[in-house]
Design a protein that fits this description.
single chain; mainly beta; seven-stranded mixed beta sheet; four-stranded antiparallel beta sheet; 11 strands; 0% helix; 55% strand; globular
């Protein structure tokens, strides 16, 4: 199983980014797919989850109304659309399925 994130970068506060996570070697649509993030000096924190079999999703409070998680099963890809980004959203963002993690993609928001 391999998860590869992309889409991170430097953006000004108020801007948007869309992260992608391409999954290979995993075909279970009944396991939730998740995004996490880890800011400098802080523990890794859960951001959002999606169950591709139903399309249902849940978000951490800080992500509600600004972030949208989605998945395209035909492309084996999960996304995280992040709008109205804030300085405190600066972190490395990781995707996860069960015990499998991606390598992370850096998101830096300038104030």
């Amino acid at each position: 199983v391999q998860l590869v994130e992309s889409g991170g970068g430097l953006v000004q506060a108020g801007g948007s980014l869309r992260l992608s996570c391409v999954v290979s070697g995993f075909t279970d649509n009944f396991s939730p797919m998740k995004w996490y993030r880890q800011a400098p000096g802080k523990e890794r924190a859960w951001v959002a989850s999606i169950l591709t079999s139903s399309g249902s999703s849940v978000y951490a409070d800080f992500a509600k109304g600004r972030f949208t998680i989605s998945a395209d099963t035909a492309k084996n890809t999960m996304y995280l659309q992040m709008n109205n980004l804030r300085y405190e959203d600066t972190a490395v963002y990781y995707c996860r399925i069960l015990k499998y993690w991606g390598q992370g993609t850096q998101v830096t928001v300038s104030s």
